[in-house]
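USER: For my understanding, would you kindly supply a protein sequence with its structure tokens?

ASSISTANT:
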Amino acid sequence: MSIKSLAKNMLTKRENKKYERLLAKRRMTYEQWCEGQTFFSPETSGEESPFVLVCSEGGTPDKGADALLGAYFKGHPEVQVLYGDEDVWETPPGGPRHSPWFKPDWSPDLFDSLFYFGGLTAVRRRLYEQAAALCGEPVDERTLVKTCVELAGGYERGCRSIAHIPQVLFHWESREAMLECQKEPDTAGKEDALHGADTAGITDEKPFVSAVICSKDHPQLLGRCLKALERAGTGTKLEVIVVDNGSSPENRRYLEQMLSEHTYLYQPMEFDFSSMCNLGAERARGKFLLFLNDDVELCGEDCLGQMALSAGKPYVGAVGIKLYYPDSVRIQHAGIVNLPMGPVHKLQFLEDTQDYYFGWNKRTVNVLAVTAACLMVEREKFCLAGGFSPRLKVAFNDVELGFKLWELGYFNVCRNDLYAYHHESLSRGDDETKEKLNRLLKERALLYEMHPALLGEDPFYSVHLSRQGLDTRIRPAFETAGNKLQEERGTAKRARLGGFREDSCLLFRVESCEQGILQGYGVVLGDDNSCYERYLLFEDQKGALFFQKTKGQYRPDLVENMPDQNRVGLCGFWLKVSEENLPRGIYRVGMAAKNTVTKTKLLWWSLRTIEIGEGGENR
């Protein structure tokens, strides 16, 4: 081996060791996280408890659970039933703790799909006695709790009588015991699956569904969509309304013939999803509205009937289903989660060959919103919510509808036991241009201007789950709790890019850019990433260039999603910039990466810009 190669190997090993040391600091285990928690645990008063604890065998309540539950009941007189989070703690104290389950707030449809209250439920004493009298003897704990939930009005619109404390209140002796509790008896829930739904038109008659499809110049795609729709509509009375915003004369003639037995609304206009859907809804006669992209292929003969079964429940708002990318079982949509960076599709791109986070991808879950690529809602509820907002022409109109329904007291649902194939973005193109990205960001800002109370808030996604970046997996937030926001003092240095080459092998993404805080990653494909120093670049409109060196942030999603790449775990960045660092102005954002061993110099620019100064906006 030559001296040069020997020196290179030594330098590379040095960088690898530095990488492993920093990685160890950034990672955090569940037990380390638990040690740092200071959950509120009030003192007990000595009075008779106003509630009854219903506990499962195979575990024990946390030592502070009784006092915490009592304080919550005292401070929230409207609450009748309480539950918390749970984990596995083998032979406490001192035994290993693992497998935390951080749960959503009250989710009636998830509750029907899975007994997610788990090992501990607290019920006000009077309600417990009423339920026990109704159930008689003997009765299992699950039936008793479900009776309490129903008596408490858990399946009513705007229910506030069932609450969740986001703290671990129960410890299972083993993961096997935890999973066993989640299993439903064969007969569980069969007799009360509708929970007060208007069964007229669902069980005895065919539900009347009006499918509203927006389509332009996609006759073949639309034809495939309609065939799948007819198959999925077995057991329903189906009406089809196609809204065309300006197909070519040739395609229009073809569509008029193809849709001779359906309603065809031809109205040339720029693509405006909200207006087109609202136009179709105005012409609809069905009790249920199904908004469907022309690039969606429904699967299953009773898909529409099952969606109507959920949508017909008086407390349910919008209903969506799981969407796959074509010719695969890769998940595109399994419900929308509302994070600080905006609405995201959790589980997107993951293979649907296993359960993710306690079966989210296999069960019926409650969510803040579902995609309007395939969305069903009762017409009366749609009208009550005011339909799709005309202020959001392309993006986030479905999310905004979900927000409105939630604010009206309805629970939105994603039926992940049903699925369809979605040729995503064929309806409108993609968002990978500067113009489309700017439009997307403006509509996102408008969404939260219309619903400021929901900025970064999601009752169906625990505060203890990962809320940063575009990691589509559902993972505990403690895994990245070792990351620290990088805040630099003083003015950023001027940059010179001599010797740097633009190369797309530097995979650079700005995932979030809010209030001067940039988050994302930069991975050098095909090389040892531990050997690279990374710098965020800021170029103003006059060409002045500044840089800030980044400190590696742990990204477990990159490790999992890029198994063929080398040491990518610290390729994340999380950096705040302000007027202290940069002069006022608008800057485009890029990244430079320098290999400290081989001296390779790379750079790449994103489509994102950031404005520094009073009233500055991030784009």
